[in-house]
Design a protein that fits this description.
Length: 347
């Protein structure tokens, strides 16, 4: 077991520095894993480029990860050294009023894991016991790192109440929009993604997804071709643009649902169409984060759709080149960027 490890620390906006820190050791009920893959998400990118109220320098970013167990603490019987695992970066308390209402994603008493952009991660007892899952051999480390964003997608799909006869329009073909579309497609074949970036359109089409490009023709006309209707039953807004969220109401069919999946600034305000809400019974829903059962469902989905999920990852960068990874993510020329760690003997 090494005595120290490297962490990638956000020391100021736009700057990652590497430094040595003591190696974590597993206490009773805990695990230490060798990090294998960490996905860079929109929250990480925002914290790196502009700052984030929850992730202020100095800090370690990253919460979408998978790894291999290298140390098992006392009283841990469900796991063994050498197993490939994924762990939820947080888990709800399960005891508060919000948890009792099945709103664990909104729990204010969550247990957390520290940032994942480090060579080894200590998994605390609460997350070992409730939110750590073994991955089968067919799910590699990179695919395993998609479990957390998939859990958020499971929550969104649930809040939108997508059913097998629904038509679904996903607005925004970034990594989360692509995951929303892939998971929605496992429920209903009538799924389309709205995207204008030529590079992302190609990436989405390589996943077998139907793409509509509003820069070429109006969305309703393209929906008519694919759904035999100018509107969709479920409209999932996977971009953080207020004007797009407002316009999404126009694309929802009577009795349909508009899901606000992409986050907007706290002081943002939307103008909504009360006619659609009252006379057309169009509903507006939101989703944020995940509950433990969402994470469990995401891992199960990954186990069955590993190849599909892996196709979402268009770029990988080594641990030593994290700033390059953020630049690739900023350019938005592909879908998911994942940081990979070299295979080494940690014993």
């Amino acid at each position: 077991m090494p005595s120290s490890m490297r962490i990638a620390e956000l020391t100021e906006i736009g700057r990652i520095e590497y430094r040595e820190v003591p190696m974590p050791r597993a206490g009773s009920g805990e695990l230490v894993i060798k990090t294998r893959a960490v996905g860079l998400c929109g929250t990480d990118l925002k914290a790196f480029l502009r700052g984030h109220p929850y992730f202020k320098p100095p800090c370690v970013l990253g919460h979408e990860f998978s790894g291999t167990i290298i140390e098992v603490g006392l009283d841990v019987n469900a796991f063994a050294v050498g197993q490939q695992v994924v762990a939820a970066p947080y888990v709800e308390c399960g005891q508060c009023e919000l948890c009792a209402k099945n709103l664990g994603e909104l729990c204010q008493r969550k247990a957390f894991i520290s940032g994942a952009l480090q060579e080894y991660i200590l998994i605390p007892r609460e997350i070992v016991n409730r939110a750590t899952f073994r991955l089968p051999p067919e799910v590699d480390a990179i695919a395993g790192s998609l479990a957390e964003p998939l859990a958020c997608v499971v929550n969104g799909i649930e809040k939108a109440s997508i059913e097998k006869r629904d038509s679904v329009l996903v607005i925004g073909g970034g990594p989360m929009g692509a995951l929303l579309a892939l998971m929605a497609r496992s429920i209903t074949p009538r799924v389309a993604v709205s995207e204008i970036s030529p590079a992302r359109i190609r990436a989405l089409q390589s996943l077998g997804l139907t793409v509509v490009d509003p820069s070429q023709r109006p969305i309703p006309a393209q929906l008519k071709e694919h759904f035999s209707s100018t509107q969709a039953d479920k409209v999932l807004v996977a971009v953080g643009v207020g004007s797009v969220a407002e316009e999404a109401m126009n694309w929802a069919a009577p009795g349909g649902t508009v899901l606000l999946f992409g986050g907007l600034p706290k002081d943002a305000r939307l103008t909504i169409d009360p006619f659609a809400i009252h006379y057309q019974e169009v509903s507006i829903a939101g989703s944020f984060g995940y509950r433990l059962d969402h994470f469990r469902t995401a891992v199960s989905w990954l186990n069955e759709h590993a190849a599909q999920a892996s196709g979402l990852v268009t770029h990988t960068v080594p641990f030593e080149k994290i700033e390059t990874g953020f630049e690739i993510a900023r350019q938005a020329t592909g879908l998911k960027t994942v940081v990979v760690f070299e295979e080494s003997d940690a014993s």
